[in-house]
Amino acid sequence: MSEPRDVVVVGAGPAGSAAAIFLRQRGRDVLLLDEARFPRDKICGESISPGAHRLLADLGVEPAVRVLAPFPLRGMALTSPDGTSFVGEYRDAAQPGLAMRRDVFDKVLLDGARAAGAEVREGVRATGLVLEDGVVAGVTCENGAGPETLRARLVIGADGRRSVVARQLGLLREHRSLRKFAVRGHWEAMDGLEERGEMHVGGGGYCGIAPLTPRRANVTFVLDRAEMIGAGGDLESFYRETLRRWPRVVERLARASLLGPPRAIGPLALEASRVSAPGARLVGDSAGFYDPFTGEGVTLALRSAEMAAEVADGALRSLAGTSFGLRSSGRPSGASSTGADLSAYDRVRRASTRDKFRINRMLQRVVARPALSNAMARRLSHRPDLADKLVGIAGDFVPASSAWTLRFLWQLIAG
Predict the structure, then answer these.
(1) pTM of the model
(2) Is 231 in contact with 264 (CB distance < 8 Å)?
(3) Which of 39, 227, 278, 366 to pair with 129, CA 20 to 30 A apart?
(4) What residues have CB less than 8 Å from 285, skipping those under 6 apart?
């Protein structure tokens, strides 16, 4: 039996490619798989928060990202159901946020993984896990020529919302109450675009705008699943008609052209009971996804890859020859893989995301209640300092923990 790889990463989106790069920087032997062939489209708001810059630099891909000439985002504007608007600026961010097509961004990260020395296999679909004594010992896959088994000391699931790794381990499920779908379209010649993202609340959901150039934009709305019934078999007609719920968006599209068929994805919110199991770790959307309202998905994916790589490398070093090593039988021993090293990633990720996810949940409650949305928008329109802080938290450069002080909460709700 051949010696297993150090790590097999399933999924080559931002989280998977970043995990592969971070592990290669630590000298690990990494195989990166994805069923797609790149570049490929990805339904997403296509905005990246300012907090991603440090991660892109550490990954060594920031120069290649700059070559793409991403559109700068210097803040966020929000319009409430009654038309009240406020703007929060990324004043204290070292660099602006970024907006760009995911097909080109993801390809840069994948090329970065190749350049770092990871073996990359595109067009290879993971079909299951290899389990031995309750420990993940590899993956089974379909490579176009037939089934294949790839053994590894560690498997990282970065295969998104429909993760084979997470679901076979029973770790991922749909959120009990948040059953939302997103529908995205790209528009050319949209009026009124500025160097900031936009969120328009109301109409039973919300509509986000990410400017990709001074005239081109990603326009995506999010609705409850029940409202998607109206899509029937004609998603484009449903998309165009539903946009009318946000008149301030539609009037700016009067002279614009829809560049291609819109695409839908959902349900969006997923919960992971854990982000690790013996021999496996989950990163990116495979580890759970709450909601795109605050637009931190890509940054969270990169950060979770960094955390997973740090913990995984330590576990592989400390458990060499034991929990990830080979027994005389040739099977990996899981004797100590249920101990502290296994739970470390869960603890680190939970500590890193806890406060941000609390902000997400608070904003969801506000967005779901028009009166609350209107009241908060009025408050923030008169307090640009509070608006800046709130979008700074969403932009991942202001600590989310700073929102959970009595002073800030009182300022946010005081009339």
Answers:
(1) 0.91
(2) yes
(3) 39
(4) 15, 160, 161, 163, 270, 297, 301
